[in-house]
Amino acid sequence: MVESDLQIAGDILSVQHLLQPAPEHPATVAEFVGLARSIAEDRSAWEHLVRYDATTRWYHRLRTGPGYEVWLLSWVPGQGSGRHDHGASSGVLTVLDGALTEHTARGPLSLRAGAQRVFAPGYAHEVVNDGLEGAVSLHVYFPGLTEMPMHNCSPARPRALSV
Predict the structure, then answer these.
(1) Is omega for the bond preceding 108 within 30 degrees of 0, making it cis?
(2) Total-model pTM
(3) pLDDT band for position 158 (cuts 50, 70, 90)
(4) pLDDT tens digit string along 19-50?
(5) 3-class SS letters over 69-94
(6) Backbone angles phi, psi at 68, to 5 degrees
């Protein structure tokens, strides 16, 4: 194994002057992250579409492109996705408004507006709005989402049984 002197500390994508405009047809993980950030910054493109539904998670396919799709989701307090993965798709999750909690085998992670998570195919997690206010998130899947297998609850987040 060859060692490298190159080390990156922190989030290189947060250094605005290093960001390139999102290409018309993203092809790399960094370009999909850039696409998600550019959509997030253009509130006029998505804010008027958001709906909150207490009976089910609301979602809207915002955009499609060659080999990817972009979804807008809203979360009322207490709503969650259930533990799942995204099949063969990789993805970028961006919190647009509010806060969400991502639960994985490693434990919970709080995600506030502006936070992004990148995941590979087969990555299992549960996303929940544990707050008191609504939340909005943007999800980019590449290739486009064709399946979302649900998983049994993990020991990291046990659920009470209903009787």
Answers:
(1) no
(2) 0.79
(3) very low
(4) 555 556 788 899 999 999 999 999 999 999 99
(5) EEEEEEECCCCECCCECCCCCEEEEE
(6) -150, 165
CB-based contact 75:111 (threshold 8 Å): no
- Whether 142 contacts 32, CB under 8 Å: yes
CB-based contact 56:101 (threshold 8 Å): no
What are the pLDDT digits (tens) for 60-100?
999 999 999 999 999 999 999 999 989 999 999 999 999 99
- Tell me the CA distances in angstroms from 96 to 45, 50, 73, 106, one per residue in order: 12, 11, 10, 24
Tell me the three state secondary structure of residue 133.
Answer: coil
Q: How far apart are CA 62 and CA 141, in angstroms?
A: 12
DSSP state of 68: E
The Cα 46–Cα 38 span in angstroms is 12
